[in-house]
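Lab notebook page, bench 4
Experiment: in silico fold of construct C2
Operator: M.H.
Input chain length: 370 residues
Purpose: comparison with the prior construct
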Amino acid sequence: ATVDLLVAVFERWRTLVLVPLVAGALALGATYLVAPSFTARTTILPPASQQSASAGALAALGNLGALAGGALQTRNPTDQLVALLQSETVVDRMIDHFGLMTVYGDKLRLDVRKALRAHTTVAAGKKDGLIVIDVEDKDPKRAADMANRYVDELRHFTSTLAVTEAQQRRAFFQTHLEKTRDDLAAAQRALQASGFNAGALRAEPRAAAEEYARVKAEATAAEVRLQGLNSRLTPNTPEVRQAESALLALRAKLAELEKASEAARGSDYVGRYRDFKYQETLFEMFARQYELARVDESREGALIQVVDPAKPPEWKSSPKRLVITVVATAVSAVIVLLAVLVSGWLRLARESDPQTAQALARISHALRRR
């Protein structure tokens, strides 16, 4: 039976050769009826992260450093920029700038967004960290303009956001610095209203008050950090347990300091002096870290640097005539070969087995009746 099938194949070799060639020629001709598309590419270098400076800055904070570190844990800056390039804000600005509602011929902005994303590829290199933006369009000049415009829109967008690690640290400490400044001013006014007397100062030595303020500040930071961990982690995770242990230790130390100065609690001045030193300690910590963050931010320089600007491509990217021709030829060759094999098998089945021939005749008759 195998030999008979091979004979059937060789008997129809002309069909096996001519049909795929004709299919490939037709596919090649069809590619000339499709308007060519051009792909422009631009490559950008994302900002480098100032990890070493950040670590040194946060180390000076103790428990506040842990708080800031937990709050400022961000993804890779490259991944963030890729996500921003694909955001609706950037896409909508591209649509409005190039009038893509008319270019793509869609009435709904949602459809135009899908079309633009389908014609745009944003990829980040795993080894070199560069971001490559490819834009496909019927007009080579517009393709290059759109690729370069993506960089301009990204710069404009990131100028309003805290993207880098240093920027986020600066924004974080700036917020807390402003709040602590107000609290410090209120504590200072309360302290001045209580009146100053040397006896109260002797009852509550300055060193003890500063130690109390420092521990209370660290306890406050530990409480905030624990709340942040509880919002995203389960209570049994090691991070939460470690934070709880640190908070308990700080509270115990704070209780010891309060007990040691219990004899002086009756003085209204002492309590307000403590509050003042507490706010002053927090303010100094936040001010120091805010200035360090500003220095790191200035070192980062330009957020986005263009490595290779896009230029109007000289050669089309689609349709890929050679690929289409080869695929069409190969697919048609497989289909014709299967048709020849099935036809040969049916002919052999009719000749070798009368019952099979009758069954095939009934099937053919039923199909013709339909």
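Observations: Residues 50-63, 65-74, 200-204 have pLDDT under 50 and may be disordered. Strands lie at 38-45, 120-124, 131-137, 305-308.
Next step: discuss at group meeting.
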